[in-house]
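pasting input
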Amino acid sequence: MSASTAPGAPASGPIVELSAVTKDYPLGKLTVQALRGVDLRIERGEFIAIAGPSGSGKTTLLNLVGCVDVPTAGAVRIEGQSTSELSEKQLTTLRLHKLGFIFQSFNLVGVLDVFQNVELPLLLQGGLTSADRKRRVAEMVDKVGLTPQTRQRPNELSGGQRQRVAIARALVTRPAIVMADEPTANLDSGTGGAIIELMKDINRTDHTTFIFSTHDANVMGHARRLVELVDGRIAADHPVSEAA
Amino acid sequence: MRMLLLVAWRNLRQGGRRTLLLGLALAMVTGLLVFLLALSRGVNVSMTRAATTLSSGHVNVAGFYKATPDDVAPLIQGVDALRRIATENTEGLVRVLDRHRGWCKVISETSSMWVGLHGIEVSEEDALFEQLTMAAPATYVKGDPAKARPSEPRRLSEPGTIMLFRSQADRLGVQVGDQVTLRTETLRGQSNTADLTVVAVADDLGLMSTWAAFVPKDAVRSLYGLKADTSGAVYLYLDDIDRAPAVMAHLREVLTEAGYTVMDHDPQPFFMKFETVMGQDWTGQKLDLTIWRDEVSFLTWVLTAIDSVSFLLTGILAVLIAIGIMNALYIAVRERTGEVGTLRAIGMGRRRVLALFVIEAMLLGLVATSIGAALSATVALIIDAVGVPLPWTAARAIFMNDHLSLVVAPAHLIGAVAAFTIITGFSAFWPALRAARLPPITAIHQTE
């Protein structure tokens, strides 16, 4: 089965669905329950913030949706496909074709320049001609406003510029879902705001689903839906206008 | 692949001192192996040259003659007919000649020594005189070298002459123009002597020249009381020495069909077969066909020793380097766990992660070993061109030459580079596998 095609996946319905998801982590002789029976439906094109204090399970939830981890119990479905039923190879394919990641620490490949970092997922995907691939990368780099920095390496960029590269890398494969784990945590408020605006703009124009975690009230204000986690449970789930 | 190579190359460059030290170690070990292989090859070439100059053709049609079951002589009868058959049935034949073989004591006024006699016909031996260089009198003459007569090897066409090698002349205390006495036993068991004049002293050709001396054929015939149509061996020289075994096999069939009795092939020099043949209960003539390598088989221990030392030494160093590479890559994997996690999270499969680290190691291996091999080959070629003299007799004997001979074979270069690149790749495999097996979540957490 190819995760990229996800046969049997419903054309409509939630793009992400968590059903009674529990995630336990062993910590020495203890077991830490990071998530406790979480139920969540996320529709296509949503711009959703996961909020909560440190240790509330935000990152764990994103990791489960991002298919870099599997639940201890319950089910995580991406376009109707349960991630627990997928092999390691299928999960890798799913991440490559359907998901995009934006990390708090940017996580760029230090030895590659801006263009090459953005090009990397497309090279892993294959299927495009060299010219098509380069055109798409150039468009994406332009979209995040880094054309002048195309040949610079991450250590030559500011924090905001690095996060823009990370966004371009996450979006270049045109994924259905982009996960962003505290994307503004390492940025000043002005830069952070600009990054969120960029993500929001892409969400509006490309209808890409964005799920991002944050504990910054300003950032939460940009989301259209806010899910609040406390001690591994969903404490609140509502449109942002209501929260405000 | 292009991206993997790019990442690998840039990570290596970023590795700085670690990359430099590992590369240096790889280059040094490869260079050492290339140098030792060049030495081995040099000895091999020297041995081939010495053997095919002094005591053997590429293929030899020799034999033993037994007048009674209890004696044996290294003789072939009817040598003209044998030469004709061999010439007509040898493909790629460049030249043919025959030499008498003998074993006698050479006695000077001050010393004596045993030598193997080679009875030659000067008109057939242009190649011999091209290969040999005459020794400078200063290297062996006890008195004033300026007063020494020059060597005249072609005077071996005159009766009663002998050509010695430098170490022999030195030991016997003779020079060109001096007389020596040869003493041996005839086939009938009688003692016989001959007085000969030294007409030439040649430079040594390694160990083999310490017991070889050249005289006219007639000198051997008269010393042993032999007929005119006898000889010791017919030497056949081919355009391709590697075809010698095939030519020998073919000649065995031809000579057997022609009615000759041919002994089973025994890959030893003729003088090591005396005891065996002497104990055999037959009389008359039997032919013994050999190739050049058989005639120097007693010397191949030198090559075996050099090769063994080379491979043992480089093997030990290769293991040490492999451990070093594994250790360095384990550290690199630990340092780059976050990068691995990121790559896995964005969709890089385990095989590609594995390939990334293995390619990185192999790239280092390829570049470092190529540099090491190229530098070592250059040094070897320079040393060979300069002709560094070997000061010790033992060294000259072992290396079959007066000077250090190093021959760089392209196949050895390619082989050494390929071998160490592959070893480097294998060394990287386990650390790379560890990286590939890292769950993305673990790797990502490492960064955070």
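fyi The longest strand of chain B covers residues 93-107.
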